[in-house]
Design goal:
mainly alpha; globular; single chain; 20 helices; 84% helix
């Protein structure tokens, strides 16, 4: 595994290495999108609105798994780079145990206080029954949901991104099949969509447990050891990714409240459709960041400054090209996305289509910010990574969402995220340029990894 991370990558070989993670993220985004499609097409738009109303609760819980996955893998990969394989195994086992316990607590507490959570998130009487049915079911699978997010990063660290990809694809296909089965012929409604998602997540989670339990070499389960600073360092390194998910919960709540104010429940359904599209498009950048992170971490741990510079330049090329392509696809594909979740000719369809045109501007800027944050996480610079994520996913979005609608109304809601991403560029670009300007900076401005 360490030999694959030590490879001297070029543009094509690095993309090939990251490709499984990119596909994994796309399929993970499809979990929510497929749920939304069947809910919108075979239940109704109010059910779709309800699924988005309760989404912040799911996002908060998922943030923990992503934090330990991205932050913990940076720690573990760095130790492997320092030829401390056994210590890396013990730390990985401790992180898995911690994540599992948190997942169990989330499932129990979430079910006990489900209705109160829905009310807190702003569910109206029209949306309450749909919301509780969806949330109670999806939270019952919290342990496997968190483990899937954790293993997603550690399959890459273990040098088995292909295995992670195949498991995620299998989970995605299972989710799609069960979505149809539960929602259409069995008429289980929103609870059926949530059940399909949970059962799909069981595949990579259970398979991950089996793989790391019976692996004979490389990254595997062993006696857990909470080394000094393991949890705090992992949390700190993964704080940007956790901030992104926590911020997503807050921002989703804010958008839901704004759309309820300006457009009513159908407005929530419209913003849900746009955000589903965002899940799919940004999966490219998130997957790339996850895929290349162990390579950055390994070379950082082995202090190979020249390769770090090369990895950075390749990443910039990838972001610039893909950003233009995705923005164009999102803009011209807005009517298609709208038709997936709304009936043509309805006000909801026109609202979603128009919002999609405006929202597509964000894709010109978000890739740079997402990849920048991921790079700093991989380099154990959690402070800079968290700063970028916090600004782009919370501070600038909240400010834009509170101010722009005062002048532009509903259009201000659609433009909030594009404006936030653009403003974040003035932080992420200088940070990257300063860090990689001098080859010495890549290793000498940071303390050695633990």
């Amino acid at each position: 595994m360490s030999q694959s991370l030590a490879k001297d990558f070029n543009f094509h070989s690095l993309l090939k290495f990251a490709f499984p993670s990119i596909i994994m993220m796309i399929f993970m985004s499809l979990y929510s999108i497929v749920d939304g499609f069947f809910i919108a097409q075979y239940v109704d738009s109010m059910a779709l609105s309800a699924a988005n109303i309760v989404y912040p609760a799911v996002s908060i819980l998922l943030a923990v798994g992503i934090m330990f996955g991205t932050g913990g893998s940076a720690v573990v990969a760095a130790k492997i780079g320092q030829e401390k394989q056994e210590e890396a195994n013990r730390n990985f086992s401790a992180l898995t145990l911690t994540t599992l316990i948190i997942g169990i607590l989330g499932a129990v507490l979430g079910n006990l206080f489900c209705r109160q959570i829905c009310s807190l998130l702003g569910a109206t009487p029209v949306l309450m029954d749909y919301g509780t049915a969806y949330l109670r079911t999806i939270l019952s699978f919290a342990p496997v949901c968190l483990l899937q997010a954790l293993f997603q990063s550690f399959f890459v660290t273990a040098g088995r991104p292909g295995l992670g990809l195949s498991l995620t694809v299998s989970a995605g296909i299972t989710n799609m099949i069960l979505d149809y089965l539960f929602v259409v012929p069995l008429h289980l409604g929103v609870a059926g969509a949530a059940l399909a998602t949970g059962l799909g997540q069981c595949i990579p989670s259970v398979a991950g447990i089996l793989y790391f339990t019976f692996a004979r070499k490389g990254l595997r389960f062993t006696r857990p050891e909470f080394s000094k600073g393991l949890l705090s360092t992992s949390c700190f390194n993964g704080s940007s990714e956790m901030v992104s998910n926590l911020s997503a919960a807050v921002v989703t709540y804010l958008f839901n409240m704004l759309m309820l104010k300006f457009e009513g429940e159908i407005g929530v359904a419209a913003i849900t459709a746009i955000l589903y599209g965002q899940f799919l498009f940004v999966a490219l950048y998130l997957g790339y960041s996850i895929g290349v992170a162990p390579v950055f971490s390994f070379n950082y741990g082995s202090r190979n400054k020249q390769r770090l510079i090369r990895l950075y330049r390749i990443s910039i090329r990838f972001v610039v090209v893909s950003s233009v392509i995705i923005a164009l696809v999102a803009a011209f594909g807005s009517p298609v996305i709208s038709a997936v979740f709304m009936q043509k000719g309805t006000y909801g369809f026109e609202l979603t289509r128009h919002g999609g045109y405006l929202f597509s501007i964000a894709y010109l800027f978000c890739g740079t910010n997402i990849v920048a944050s991921g790079i700093f996480t991989a380099l154990s610079d959690g402070k800079t990574s968290a700063l970028i994520s916090f600004l782009r996913t919370f501070v600038f979005i909240v400010l834009s969402a509170l101010l722009l609608p005062l002048v532009l109304g509903t259009n201000g809601v659609w433009l909030s995220i594009p404006v936030a991403e653009f403003l974040t560029l003035f932080i992420s670009v200088p940070k990257l340029s300063r860090y990689f300007k001098d080859p010495k900076v890549a290793t000498e401005t940071q303390t050695s990894p633990n």
